[in-house]
Design brief:
Length: about 475
């Protein structure tokens, strides 16, 4: 049996669909060139024949791979591929795509097909995508659900996307009086186990969680023992209102595959699984990367240019203001630069090395805040450490840059200015790299949001000011 690595399979799927789409376009063009009274019939037959192979391949594609393909295609091709998917397959892919592509699919899908694919979703998945769906469609879908599914859906939408309340209710439960042998027999009687089932949950007569038993424990322990005697007493649990970010950290810390969710009375109401956690981790990583660049929201790779442009305006405006401020710093030393043209060629080096150092410091601080390793009480210690590091690096690389300036311009004083400016700007970068994310975090904002723009402004403006100020004081 041949095996294919996941990334290779994804790329192969995308390439195959791209080739089929291109073939479809070429054959459609040739059919359109036919002359005569039967032209419309020929075009119709050609269109159906062209799509047959694409239809067959799309239907055989895994829903998660289909979601990847949909995000990688421009709108016209995306619509063609989307129309070939089965209702069940489209529903699963609908959950997997990004929010912006999901919103595009809502706008591009007929009312009847959208209702049909949404009714195939689990109540938890329906709650997960609810924010992307118009309220009138949600009401219609809710009325079409079975009573138990409707209740589960309504419970899930009580909680925000950042809460554990968007959980799965598919799990294996046994009573505390059940033996291990009886539990194994119950598992064998099931048609299939719920996804990511690594443990069985033990409850009492009031549905209160007593603990959980890993599947391997069921296989290794004496079959005659009651499950309550072998269940883990230190089972990690969550409440529906707990932050999903806390669950992510717990899953990473304790290497969890699934964990129970209990209400305020200790009753088992669901479970959270590693696939849900991984979706959150992926989405959070993508969102942080966008926010660090100053983007206010995600955007479709093939969105209309006007929409994408507006998404990028806020921090571009801020960046423009900060650039003007930095330019005025240079303007104050225009006479100095005119007197020694070498300053104009050397000052970007000071700003650049400061920005690099600041980004390194800031990345460490943002990560520490994200995993709750950095508290206000520890901020001073982190700052002291980064200052020492900046002084060490500044001393080493300041000497290197100073010697290089001396070699290029045969000016000892200029080399000394260059060395001093590098050391001082690295200190400034270290302070900014710690202070900016901490300040954003203290005001309730994401420390990654626009932090790189602010850091660039500080290191550029201060780099220019320090270098040109020292040059004015020492060289003239």
């Amino acid at each position: 049996m041949a095996t294919i690595r996941s990334e290779a399979r994804l790329q192969e799927t995308l390439d195959r669909i791209a080739r089929l789409l291109e073939k479809h376009r070429v054959l459609d063009t040739l059919a359109a060139r036919q002359e005569g009274p039967k032209r419309d019939l020929l075009e119709h037959l050609q269109h159906r024949q062209n799509l047959a192979e694409l239809h067959k391949f799309v239907r055989a594609t895994h829903a998660a791979d289909l979601a990847f393909v949909l995000e990688a295609l421009p709108p016209g091709d995306r619509r063609t591929v989307w129309d070939q998917a089965s209702v069940e397959q489209a529903g699963l892919a609908f959950v997997e795509v990004s929010n912006v592509v999901r919103e595009w699919l809502v706008e591009s899908t007929s009312h009847e097909r959208l209702i049909a694919l949404l009714t195939t979703l689990d109540p938890e998945d329906l709650g997960y995508v609810a924010d992307s769906i118009p309220s009138d469609i949600l009401r219609e879908v809710s009325r079409a659900l079975a009573s138990a599914d409707r209740q589960a859906y309504e419970e899930s939408i009580q909680y925000g996307e950042d809460r554990v309340g968007h959980m799965s209710r598919e799990m294996v439960i046994v009573g505390e009086t059940t033996t291990i042998q009886q539990t194994i027999e119950e598992l064998r009687a099931l048609a299939e186990l719920p996804p990511q089932t690594d443990r069985v949950f033990v409850i009492d007569a009031r549905h209160v969680l007593r603990g959980s038993i890993p599947l391997q424990t069921l296989l290794l322990k004496d079959p005659s023992l009651p499950v309550v005697g072998v269940c883990a007493s230190d089972t990690v649990t969550f409440a529906p209102g707990d932050a999903i970010a806390d669950a992510v950290k717990a899953f990473e810390r304790y290497d969890l595959v699934s964990a129970p969710v209990v209400d305020d009375r200790g009753k088992l109401v669901g479970r959270i699984t590693v696939d849900s956690v991984m979706d959150v981790v992926r989405a959070d990583a993508e969102w942080r990367a966008l926010k660090q660049a100053g983007l206010s929201r995600d955007e479709d790779l093939f969105a209309r240019p006007w929409d994408s442009a507006r998404n990028r305006w806020p921090w571009l405006a801020i960046n423009l203001v900060t650039a003007f401020i930095a330019s005025r710093v240079i303007g104050r030393f225009e006479a100095t630069i005119t007197s020694l043209s070498a300053l104009a060629t050397l000052m970007p080096i000071v700003a650049s090395i400061g920005g690099n150092t600041g980004n390194q410091t800031m990345a460490i601080v943002i990560r520490a805040l994200a995993v709750d390793q950095l508290r206000p009480s520890g901020a001073a210690r982190v700052l002291n450490k980064e200052l020492v590091i900046s002084l060490l690096n500044g001393s080493v690389w300041g000497v290197v840059v100073g010697i290089a300036a001396l070699g290029l311009y045969s000016n000892l004083a200029l080399g000394a200015v260059m060395m001093s400016a590098v050391v001082l700007n690295l200190v400034v970068a270290a302070v900014a790299g710690v202070a900016i994310p901490l300040a954003l975090h203290a005001t309730g904002r994401d420390p990654a949001y626009g932090s790189s723009v602010l850091l660039t402004f500080v290191t550029d403006a201060m780099g220019f000011f320090l270098f040109l100020g020292l040059a004015s004081a020492i060289l003239f």
